[in-house]
Design brief:
Length: 250
């Protein structure tokens, strides 16, 4: 009977098993660190991109806020002037064109639109977690919270302004400037020269002045301060972002 001899296999000692295990451990660990490092640099790139994009949005916001502040200040100045003229019995001595001009300016819209492009991405993707600088995170959250409050006051102001306009249209000859040049194709200079009595219904003046007072109080004590605060928050946030991320961009 033929006898088969198995090849001799040299057994590994403990040190060899330990060395192989150590090499496997090091390979896995290095792979883990390499993946973590890749993810870290990827997150830093995303963070910088988001922050620089947010700074651009904030610059557009400051322009929109500045426009709204200018409109609102014109509105409030006209409203204050009209109320003082009425209270001192000087309104009756003004010309009709001047009365029409100042009353129209008492209810200017102060529309504002915030650029939420980057903010939406940060909120929807949860990427705000990528921002390492606590001061910037706190500033962003404060800006967003004040933006919500600003829009709430804006809606109240627009609602009050709409009511003021309803009363104004029952009181003054605003139709001359709103309708004649466009609807009838008339020469605007001829229309402007038309002798039109400014106050159609004097009995509505007290109601109109009350509505102007409401609009002035809301605009002066609530809307204007929160717009200025939002402008300051945007300016400070832009400064923080440029300070922390300008070098990373370059």
């Amino acid at each position: 009977m033929e006898v088969h001899h198995h090849p001799h296999v040299e057994k590994k000692n403990f040190r060899e098993y330990l060395l192989e295990g150590l090499m496997i451990f090091l390979a896995v660990t290095m792979g883990f660190f390499a993946e973590s490092l890749r993810e870290y640099f990827g997150d830093r790139e995303k963070e910088t991109h988001y922050m620089l994009s947010l700074a651009e949005d904030l610059k557009k916001d400051t322009q929109a806020i500045r426009y709204s502040i200018n409109r609102l200040e014109t509105d409030l100045e006209a409203g204050h002037k009209l109320i003082v003229l009425a209270a001192t019995n000087k309104l009756s001595g003004m010309s009709d064109p001047e009365i029409l001009r100042i009353t129209r300016q008492t209810g200017l819209s102060a529309d504002i639109v915030f650029n939420d492009r980057t903010a939406f991405q940060l909120k929807s993707s949860g990427s705000i977690r990528l921002i390492r600088h606590k001061a910037i995170v706190d500033s962003i959250l404060q800006y967003w919270n004040n933006q919500i409050a600003t829009m709430q006051i804006h809606e109240r102001f627009e609602s009050t302004r709409t009511e003021q306009h309803k009363i104004a249209h029952k009181t003054f000859s605003w139709y001359k400037n709103y309708y004649f040049p466009r609807a009838m194709g008339a020469d605007s200079s001829l229309v402007a020269a038309m002798p039109v009595k400014a106050i159609l219904h004097p009995e509505n003046m007290d109601e109109f002045l009350n509505s102007c007072g409401n609009l002035f109080n809301l605009g002066h004590y609530q809307y204007l301060p929160i717009l200025r605060k939002q402008q300051d928050l945007a300016t400070e946030l832009i400064r923080l972002i440029q300070q922390e991320y300008h070098e990373e961009k370059n």
